């Protein structure tokens, strides 16, 4: 098989309302049995999955908090590869009345609080970036994203992005998908992701991912790629 790594987003991609269906689980298990390294690349915090070991165990590696935290389910090892949220930034958000959720690195809220978040970034003069994800608003240190997190995993495996099939559905997936050897979008992805992906599945979310995996395993991926002129 040409591609040796499969990297997928979680919400809206392999999962619907936080749940994976049986066919999607089976497809991921078949892929790993074929020797493909499976990576979950998500904006979620690790503790979102603390009661879902069965989900994390489907993967060889997890990139969480939109690239800031790495986790190996087999050994339960966690690596935080970016600095914690600055205390003065958190204080400024609280002063402005912004509802936030704080991870080991990520600070998350929802629209329409992005205006207050951007004002807080400007007020504190910190090198922070604001990332959008289907109504969610995430703040991370500058230069931290899904691509940098996945790159750290690829370095561990002595592989490159050319070895990766990536699939996603939302704005925060673009930065890692554009680096992959093969980029895919599920049918329910936002328009900008579908326009840039090399492959768009016929089905939504998990069913679309299952469709993609079946094409990979049958070595019929060319049937999903647009014909060259």
Q: How would you explain this protein's 3D organization?
A:
The chain is of the alpha/beta class and 229 residues long. It folds into two domains: 5-81 and 144-224, Rossmann fold (3-Layer(aba) Sandwich); 87-141, Hypothetical Protein Ta0175, Chain: A, domain 2 (Alpha-Beta Complex). The protein is 31% helix and 22% strand. The strands form two sheets. Strands 5-4-3-2-1-10-11-12 form an eight-stranded mixed β-sheet, with helices on both faces. It has a four-stranded antiparallel β-sheet with strand order 6-7-9-8, covered by helices on one side. The longest helix is centred in the C-terminal third of the chain and has 13 residues, at 205-217. It starts with a strand and ends in a 12-residue tail after the last helix.
Summarize the structure.
The protein is α/β, with parallel strands linked by helices. Helix content is 31%, strand content 22%.
Label the structural class.
alpha/beta
Q: Helical amount among residues, as a percent range? A: 25-40%
Q: How many angstroms separate the termini? A: 25 Å
Q: Can you tell me the residue ranges where pLDDT is under 50 for at least 5 consecutive residues? A: none
**What's the total number of strands?**
12
- Count of individual domains: 2
Average pLDDT for all residues? 93
Looking at the structure, what is the overall shape?
Answer: globular
Give the quaternary arrangement of the chains.
Answer: single chain
